[in-house]
Design a protein that fits this description.
Layout lengths: L3 H29 L7 H25 L5 H14 L13 H14 L4 H20 L5 H17 L19 H6 L8 H7 L13 H17 L4 H12 L2 H7 L5 H21 L2 H15 L6 H22 L3 H17 L1 H10 L8 E3 L2 E4 L3 H8 L6 H12 L14 H13 L9 H18 L3 H9 L3 H5 L1 H15 L5 H19 L8 H24 L5 H36 L11 H6 L8 E6 L10 H5 L6 E3 L8 H10 L4 E5 L4 H7 L5 E6 L3 E6 L4
Parallel strand pairs: 3-4, 3-5
Antiparallel strand pairs: 1-2, 5-7, 6-7
Length: 703
């Protein structure tokens, strides 16, 4: 019963955070896209982009105002829902998102053969959700900065400008790697923060990737339809992408690559739609998605430049033909939307460092305008530049199964998909396809060519150090290739058409088999999967029967369903509390984490005794192994900071500990000079526990 009350309150707040933006986004979409020719995928994609923009607005305003607390954010999201009532809907019945989903379900149920694609994906979706519910965040980057930032926002009740979130008086007081991460755009942390905030724990944090996975599939389906593919082939294209190992692997993490992929695809979809319809609403949604993508990750810059350039070129040509400059003016409006939605961090970087894309170098036409950060300079100076062999490894891990804890490649079917997508261009038959086909090919090809053909030392190092980046960084390209390939397959006839339709479920099934959905506890995994499947089935049933049952029965059903969700989350929370550190010790989500530190993290996880912990770590190439998040504890009760020792002055470092009121210092190997300073001052620092890989010192007098 003690756990039920906070989970009930958290679930109510979370539902408010979701319902308000979704409700208003749905009404905006229904008002903006009044024509019946808007496809179901296009409608759902617009709702998703607008809803996230509204949520990001609420989270950022509350955070920057210093009131990032559950009831304020929930009230702000509820207010967005009330604001939606002021939106005037078109006369007559305009289909909403629920209508679109119902139409799709009816189409799917028309022929049992369509279940060959939908059923296995639904099963894997259930298993993936179960995996996400049972495990704590385990992904390497989540433990170093994604979830570390989220925890700090929740602890501080604020989203402060990126000056010094981990302690120290100046931005330079950070660990170098984390200082670089903090210069990255922040919109990727919005959804995980909104999910974590109501509970104060990471109970549902691993679910933050699933909305983006769904939007990736929806937008891919919509693009394929715009290129001329029928519903079955568009569904196959969406399934190819949503079921590929990389997408499934990153769905249960707080990595932002699925978010970037979804937003780039949504922007592409609405640029294509504008080319056919020339509606202002299409331009606004397209550029809104571009801005949100840019505010999520710098990798969105190239696709955005291509999309914006293509839109400007077409608009200018049509404006010259019709002598109507309004089309070109829309490009300026779009640029303003991009900057408003995603330009904040770049403006901060420019003001602080003179480089909007810090820590990366800024260069135009080979002329370097701003150098890379000192941290990246050190990493790159110590790295070998790679070789042809390493480029081959990058190619293999893009399209085949990578030797990771979970496969993070795109799957071996994608070389064929890319070849099919490029076939019309090679055969000079692009004129037989819609106007947007060439844009889709260009948009997909440029990032891939940049990755594989870039001969610079930077690109070689990326290919050598992080080959799995080729799958997640190129996921938008692979999704666009799938949509284009679906349009080509649509034109097949006879045995080739039947072969394509028959081979698709086999290819998708092969990826699902390699998705590595093993749980640490099979019994817990199966029980959770059964519960998730039952909840989904009950939800679908009640949705279908809502018109046939009375109002009281609907209220009773919703009440019982809500109570069942609370009970299920209480049980899952108890399981996670018991097995949290066992998962850290034995399980692999994406990439292996240093198991040697887990016992030290466990010893400092005392929910009833929160502490301020300073983390100390020596340089080990490539210098990004600062695990802030695990030290925060299961209830995010510990405040984790870093005090800069770079001046080599022990007294200045100790004064920094006093300023931050540090009670515990956690040092990890390779042990830095701070360990020697503490050992030389036993009156101030008491070594409480130590292993070969970590040491814990209690700081006397700072409580």
């Amino acid at each position: 019963m003690d756990a039920a009350a906070p989970i009930t309150a958290g679930l109510v707040a979370l539902l408010a955070c979701a319902a308000g933006p979704l409700w208003t986004a749905g009404r905006i979409a229904r008002a903006a896209f009044r024509d019946r020719d808007v496809g179901g995928a296009e409608h759902l994609a617009a709702v998703g982009a607008i809803a996230f923009a509204l949520l990001a607005l609420v989270v950022r305003v509350a955070g920057l105002a210093g009131v990032f607390v559950p009831w304020v954010v929930a009230a702000g999201c509820a207010a967005t829902g009330l604001a939606g009532l002021a939106i005037r809907l078109p006369d007559g019945r305009s289909p909403g998102a629920a209508d679109r989903l119902r139409e799709f379900g009816a189409w799917l149920a028309e022929r049992p053969v369509r279940a060959l694609v939908a059923a296995p994906i639904a099963v894997v979706f259930v298993l993936e959700v179960s995996r996400a519910l049972l495990m704590p965040p385990l992904a390497y980057d989540s433990l170093t900065y994604h979830m570390a930032f989220v925890a700090r926002w929740v602890q501080d009740g604020a989203i402060r400008p990126l000056g010094s979130p981990f302690g120290g008086a100046e931005p330079g007081a950070w660990p170098a790697a984390i200082g670089n991460y903090a210069r990255f755009p922040v919109l990727g942390q919005v959804l995980p923060a909104a999910i974590v905030l109501p509970f104060g724990t990471d109970l549902l944090a691993n679910l933050s990737g699933f909305p983006w996975l769904g939007l990736v599939a929806v937008a891919c389906h919509g693009i394929a339809r715009r290129l001329g593919a029928s519903r079955p082939f568009a569904l196959l294209a969406a399934a190819f992408v949503a079921a590929c190992p990389a997408a499934l692997a990153y769905a249960t993490t707080q990595y932002v690559d699925l978010q970037v992929t979804a937003l780039v695809l949504i922007a592409t979809l609405f640029v294509l739609r504008w080319q056919d319809r020339e509606r202002t609403a299409d331009v606004i949604v397209a550029y809104l998605a571009m801005g949100l993508a840019l505010g999520t990750k710098l990798t969105a810059a190239a696709p955005i430049a291509i999309l914006g350039g293509a839109h400007l070129a077409v608009a200018a040509a049509r404006a010259r033909r019709d002598r109507n400059v309004r089309r070109v003016a829309l490009v300026g409006l779009g640029a303003a939307v991009v900057l408003a939605a995603g330009g904040e961090q770049y403006a901060r970087n420019l003001a602080d460092t003179g480089n909007p894309i810090h820590p990366y170098p800024l260069a135009i036409a080979g002329v370097e305008l701003a150098p890379r950060s000192a941290y990246l300079e050190r990493v790159y100076s110590e790295a070998r530049t790679g070789s042809d062999m390493m480029d081959a490894i990058a190619l293999r891990t893009t399209f085949a199964y990578a030797p990771e804890g979970r496969p993070t490649s795109a799957g071996p079917k994608f070389p064929l998909i890319v070849a099919i997508a490029l076939a019309p261009a090679v055969a000079m038959r692009l004129r037989r396809f819609p106007n947007g086909y060439g844009l889709v090919l260009l948009l997909g090809a440029v990032p891939g060519l940049a990755f594989f053909l870039d001969g610079s030392a930077d690109a070689a190092i990326v290919r050598r150090l992080w080959p799995e980046h080729s799958s997640r960084f190129l996921l938008p390209s692979l999704a666009l290739a799938s949509a284009a390939a679906a349009a080509v397959a649509e034109r097949l006839r006879g045995r080739w058409r039947h072969l394509a339709i028959g081979a698709a479920p086999v290819a998708i099934g092969g990826d699902l088999i390699h998705a590595n959905l093993v749980f640490l506890s099979p019994a817990a995994g199966l029980a959770t999967a059964a519960g998730v499947a039952a909840a989904m089935a009950l939800g679908v049933l009640l949705f279908r029967l809502r018109a046939r049952i009375g109002r009281r029965a609907r209220v009773a059903a919703v009440t019982v369903g809500f109570a069942a969700c609370v009970a299920g989350l209480v049980a899952i929370g108890g399981y996670r509390d018991r097995t949290r550190w066992e998962h850290y010790e034995r399980h692999v989500d994406l990439h292996a984490i240093p198991r040697t530190l887990v016992d030290g993290w466990r010893r400092l996880d005392r929910p009833g005794a929160p502490a301020t912990i300073a983390i100390a770590n020596g340089w080990t190439w490539p210098g990004h192994d600062w695990f802030f998040y695990p030290l925060a504890g299961a209830r995010m009760q510990n405040r984790v900071v870093h005090v800069d020792p770079s001046g080599g002055d022990a007294d200045a470092w100790i004064a920094g500990l006093e300023r931050e009121r540090v009670e515990v210092v956690f040092a990890q190997r390779p042990f830095p000079p701070e360990v020697g300073w503490m050992e030389a001052r036993p009156e101030r620092f008491r070594e409480s526990e130590r292993s070969a890989h970590w040491a814990i010192f209690a700081v006397e007098g700072n409580r």
